[in-house]
Write the structure tokens for this entry.
Amino acid sequence: MTKQSIFGRIAQLARANVNALLDQAEDPEKMLDQMVRDYTENIREAEQAVASTIGNLRLLEQDQAEDTAATAEWGRKAAAASRKADELRASGQSAEADKFDALAKVALGRQIEGEDTVRRAEPTIAAQNEVVEKLKTGLEGMRRKLDELKAKRNELVARSRTAAAQAGVADALGSIDATDPTSELSRFEEKVRREEAKVLGRQELAASSLDAQFEDLEDLGQQTEVEARLAALKSGPAGA
């Protein structure tokens, strides 16, 4: 995996909008489970790639450190050869002194080459350090996104279970309403009221019949009085 593809993958995953993805999902819980698995796998792959990049950087740094040490060593050798040449020349051994001066020049040449190598490596190492820091930041963003996904998944599962429990309670309440015993009481009460109405009707009917009988008696008494008075008139002085 190249650095560019690592960057692209990390950036894509870190920018993923979980809520927007959920809005488009037919089964959000399954989608979140799959996303958690995908993110976990992607993080694992990214960690391996980043670890490899860091390893390469450390090798470059080790090489630079070795080159720096070697450069310093060539400098010490050049200085030692130069001192030896000076000592030999001071003692009249010019030919030998020239040999050590030549060695000093070779060492100085190696020192210069080493310095050039160390200097050329510096931009590469600096760029690699920047890449590594970006990769580390991206990985941290992916890990936070994974935590967000897990939290979202757990929240969704809890809400789903709560909704299912509430639906069960609602169904139970609906069943209770359908067989509400108070409805039977209402029907029984209505039946009792009808029976009471019948009794009232009978009582009213009986009362009206009794009133009629009394009215008949009153009419009979009045007729009897009329007959008695008529009889009295007939038996009175006018009829004698």
